[in-house]
Amino acid sequence: MLQAARMSIPEMTALMLKIPDYRDYRTTSEAAAKEREYRHALGLMLKDCGEYLLSIAEKKSQFLSSEMESMIDGLVDRIGVIFRRLDREGLVCLVGDHDTTIGELEGLDVRLIILIEEALTLVHRLETGVPASSWFKTEAAILSQDLAAFSEVTEERNYLLGLGWESEFTPR
Question: Would you say residue 12 lies in a domain?
Fold first, then answer.
């Protein structure tokens, strides 16, 4: 059973306050500013996960096998992919029917909050009394799946906001 998340109530509240009100996306500059703020808050949480994993690897290096170290590297790489998706730039414009798109975005935001909370919980379980080998057999796989899901949800948000991957190739 998972322990309580390591995300404090103030951290959770601060993140939830950064969730944009998509109905306020009246201009592209307002939308871009609100997106940047929200994405930055999500990125900070993910950065904490990555830094924590790396610090554990450094602290416990004598106890970790090369396979375990490789797993940590893979998890940190997944976080890097998410950063690139969070860093997507371009003109923010809701695609399709705005009410439908806003409903979808709000649902995706709920998923992101749940995934980031679970990721923080899983990462911090590595430090607790759980033997490292046990964590790598169970929690690491769950964390990897959560990060993959986070990446997919982020990409889906990008699409709904008009920031599909092709925005990476448009001149700025």
Answer: no
